[in-house]
Amino acid sequence: MFRRIAVHLDNGIDCRRRVEFALQMARPHDAHLTGIFASYMLPRYFYDEGGMWVRALDLVKELNTKGRMAVQAAFSEATAQAGVAASWRQGEDMPAECVVRHARHSDVLILGQENAGDVEAATGNDFVEQVLLSAGRPVIVLPTAGSFRNAGARVLYCWNQSRESARAIADAAPLLRGASALRALTLGHGAPADPDLRASFEDLAAYCASHGFPQLESEFRDAREAGIGDAILSAAADFGADLIVMGAYGHSRTRQWIMGGATRSLLEAMTLPVFFSH
What predicted TM-score, i.e. pTM, was given to this entire model? Predict the structure, then answer.
């Protein structure tokens, strides 16, 4: 069970969807939900008496404080109506640093895909990547579009025998025990003729069975023609997956190219929630 879940909050248009997803996830786990408000102070400009554009710092602070208070009120109301225990955290440091600092006391963190058109979010460049690499907790990233009410019923798991992918399936265990279908996707070049790969899958299937996950299916896809991210999204669509579980970024040069490339691709073009573990 996930007993403590954290969700990133800001003034952006996607904030409400993240809260709804977090509440939907918290209820069956009887989890405590922590809202972490992290956003830059938005620069706003005003006319002075001479008609010139000036930045009025005090007025900016006032407007941003009102925005934060409105988000806090909406969060408190939503959690109360859902019957979910909740707490609020905020900070004055950089958004990624603030989220990372507070999320480390939770089992999983929920973020939104970066949306260049959502200027009110004001989280800065590479916000999601910074959090993924620094949080020390698994992160679920939601796409900027779509509704995901049953995420976690049909799960596509990206398996490349790496440290990150091994960590990912263990981190996702509380979700996988409640799933109805689970498929392991391996990407490579040519046919899956490696006997070590077959042995690895047998051990992985035994691991899943011992932890009460659904019976593990397997799929091998040649990644030469399509990009890594496209191959994963195509496999997810063919399987009817509503959640992808995968390791985020690697350490060796080869693994960084394979799964690091996949991480970047999915963060840019995701069509369903992705559970990342680093």
Answer: 0.89
